[in-house]
Design brief:
Strand 1 and strand 2 form a beta hairpin. The N terminus is likely disordered. The chain is of the alpha/beta class. The chain is globular, with a radius of gyration of 18 Å. The strands form two sheets. It has a six-stranded mixed sheet with strand order 1-2-3-5-7-10, with helices on both faces. It has a four-stranded mixed sheet with strand order 4-6-8-9.
Length: about 290
């Protein structure tokens, strides 16, 4: 990936990334990253580390006005937390390692939510399944664009947990809290159309037209960029996201996670196997429930 003339974005840095592919659109001043974490499209420690590096790199450039989070895995945006890691830390009673992993996750979400303070608008493009932490991370962005066939939800209740890495903080700032709790307790997956009707996502795109919808949004937004950024920053000031809030909820989540019993761990293991076997299906959770 060659460095383009006329901007100071260090594209050479992004060539070494193994968990995502990065492109820069100099015309729209938009940096796009496409996640493809291995071995599953979830928030692996390696992906989290690369995202942290990306956010650090953003501080070096004034030429990025938009950051777009997308997926390089067909029909999957992101399947959330690294359940294999959860199982390992719970079985080995590694409470602090689990807590640190969760802190890394919420730092990623916090970075996505607060780039607006530097004049960067973050946009999630959801194509396919966004479950658990994948849904939380999308909601952390300033704008969520989703294709009609995208499915989103919180399956954690299936193994007696709750989404503790941003669901209450980010979804609760978009829709009423009783509705958030209902979604969390149901374990249900929702269509993009249902979420758009609720007000949980911002733009509903036809299948296959998600990238076009993002570019059209940026074009419209750019014409009023300073005003729209000021509005987002004002909203952030009235109802700010803080790391204290995010970490406090993580601590509650960790205490509960360390009490997950054998039945809950078996459900997690089935989810891991299902993720490995059928990465592209939007019926991932229902397959496990019916197993």
């Amino acid at each position: 990936m060659a460095r383009q003339a006329g901007h100071s974005v260090d594209l050479d840095f992004f060539e070494a990334l193994s968990q995502m592919r990065v492109n820069y659109d100099s015309e729209q001043q938009a940096l796009w990253f496409y996640m493809h974490a291995f071995p599953r499209p979830c928030y692996t420690p390696d992906l989290l580390s690369e995202l942290d590096d990306l956010f650090e790199k953003l501080k070096e450039s004034d030429d990025i006005h938009y950051l777009v989070a997308a997926s390089g895995v067909q029909q999957v945006y992101n399947l959330g937390g690294d359940l294999e890691l959860f199982i390992k830390y719970i079985e080995e009673n590694e409470r602090e390692k689990l807590r640190q992993y969760a802190y890394d996750c919420v730092m990623c979400c916090y970075n996505g939510a607060t780039q607006i303070r530097r004049g960067i608008t973050t946009i999630a493009l959801v194509q396919g399944s966004a479950l658990g932490g994948g849904f939380e991370a999308a909601l952390a962005c300033n704008v969520v664009v989703a294709e009609e066939s995208a499915m989103m939800g919180f399956p954690e209740i299936l193994f007696n947990l709750f989404p503790g890495m941003g669901a209450f903080s980010f979804l609760g700032r978009r829709i009423p809290m009783p509705q958030v709790e209902k979604m969390i307790l149901s374990g249900q997956q929702y269509t993009a159309a249902e979420l758009y009707e609720m007000g949980a996502i911002d733009v509903l795109a036809k299948d296959g037209e998600g990238e076009k919808a993002v570019k059209e949004y940026i074009e419209t937004h750019s014409a009023q960029r300073k005003t729209r950024v000021a509005i987002h920053r004002s909203r952030d000031r009235v109802n700010p996201i803080t790391m204290y809030e995010l970490k406090d909820i993580v601590d509650i989540w960790v205490d509960l996670a360390m009490e997950v019993d054998e039945d809950g761990l078996r459900v997690m293991q089935r989810l891991v196997r299902a993720q490995n076997r059928k990465l592209s299906t939007a019926k991932l959770v229902s397959d496990v429930v019916n197993a």
